Amino acid sequence: MTTGQQRPLGSPFSADSTCEDVLAGLDLTGTTAVVTGGSSGLGLATARALAAAGARVIVPARREGAAREALAGLGSCEVVPMDLTDLASVRSAAVRIGEAVERVDLLMAVAGVMATPERRVGPGWEGQFAANHLGHFALACELYPLLAEGGARVVVNSSAGHTLTGIRWHDPHFRTGYDKWLSYGQSKTANSLFAVGLDALGRDDGVRAFALHPGKIITGLQREMSVREQIERGWIDERGEVVGDGFKTPSQGAATGLWAATSPMLKGLGGLYLEDCDIARVSEPEEPMDDGGVREYAIAPEAAARLWEVSCAATGALPVP
């Protein structure tokens, strides 16, 4: 990826496009997709759309029973237990997936948390960095032979929240003072850099990776924010109705990820940040978050390589060949 490639292609889709719009006419029979977070919110919309198009969908989920209930009636969807903040659980899920399929064509890293209270997981990791980045990093590394076999596209949900901060190399786990929004922003920058790093390492095997901003959507992602906080931010009203400008439906929010996974316009490309079913432009440091685009620090190859080394050391994941 070069910064010069980080510019819109003129996609026929837009912020208003839905899952159905993006996948219209596509037959994904014979395709195997792994969708984290596939039992709620954007992940559920993604899993349903892929299954409706004929794909076999595997959903790793922390709450296995709830996931099976949410996916009931979708015969091509399977649930595998997995907790992204527990590396043993991630590795166990990868083994189970490897026993079930010979290749993975799509890895959709949709699961995530946002603005949570301070939470320590594993060996004392900061919870948002662990759930949003390190867990997905470990899963992709464990599944890499299957991804290479399928010449897979890997699609990672980042966010405009990445504009809040780059990687805090001096203190990524916020041991010197926790801020829930900076923590979230760092994890979203990490998601983008992970896609850049994976694409650089995997392209010779046909593995291409993309990160994306799905847009503003009210889903379970806000579950650890109070109703009052959401009202004060102008997202919802006193009745819980969405009133914020520019908010999308879950189907519209999932559309960019599905476009990333299937669009022929992205053939031969990778390591790019997407939004509104197109490649995003590079934004300036002083631009407001809601104006769109991606900060240069979130797609910098040097930072991606550094984060890859840090993540390998933290998780003990085997290096991608």
Task: Offer a quick outline of the entry.
With 321 residues, the chain is an alpha/beta fold.
Topology:
Elements: H1 19-23, E1 32-36, H2 41-52, E2 56-61, H3 64-70, E3 77-81, H4 87-100, E4 106-109, E5 120-121, E6 125-126, H5 127-150, E7 153-157, H6 180-202, E8 208-213, H7 227-232, H8 250-262, E9 272-275, E10 278-279, E11 282-283, E12 294-295, H9 301-315
Parallel strand pairs: 1-2, 1-4, 2-3, 4-7, 7-8, 8-9, 11-12
Antiparallel strand pairs: 5-6, 9-10
Helix pairs in contact: 2-8, 4-5, 5-6, 5-9, 6-9
Question: What do these coordinates show?
Answer:
By secondary structure, the protein is an alpha/beta fold. It has a single domain, classed as NAD(P)-binding Rossmann-like Domain (Rossmann fold, 3-Layer(aba) Sandwich), CATH 3.40.50.720. It contains nine helices and twelve strands. Strands 3-2-1-4-7-8-9-10 form an eight-stranded mixed β-sheet, sandwiched between helices. It has a two-stranded antiparallel sheet with strand order 5-6.
